[in-house]
Amino acid sequence: MNYDERDRKFKQGLGMCRKGRMADAAIVFRELVAAGSEEPLHLSYYGLTTATVHGRRREGLRYCQRAMQFDPSDPDVVSNLARLYELNGQKQKAVETLRRGLRQTPGHPRLLGYINRLSPRRKPPLSMVDRDNPINKQLAILAAKMTGRYKKRKVPTGQQLKVRRA
Q: Which one, of 70, 89, 78, lies nearest residue 111 by Cα?
């Protein structure tokens, strides 16, 4: 398959994705990858459709990670990998991936919208004081507790602080 044929097929698959015809798009992207395409976008969309249509999340994640290694500056590649991390319940990795993408393409609207949806930041309680000020932090925690939004972060086992008593 020559470059023009691959490009035509990719555009066809992308159009199917945008119309919500993911199963049809999966077939097109599988053909591209089976033909030996190593284009990051082809790998990324193949990974996305493999995970979402066929339920093979690990395989899809591997293809998206490979695409990210080839082209970490492409917003589609970044977005697809983040979507798969989110699909696999790895929200923090999704956010980290989006932040990495935003370092490559600062201010990209789709990446910004996606990261804001995954981890929205509320305004600090006292706007005249810096967000990192301890007073702002404690007021935010208190407000979160009062509204039921507060989730205490769990420290992974083995990393807990050991307190020595004198």
A: 78
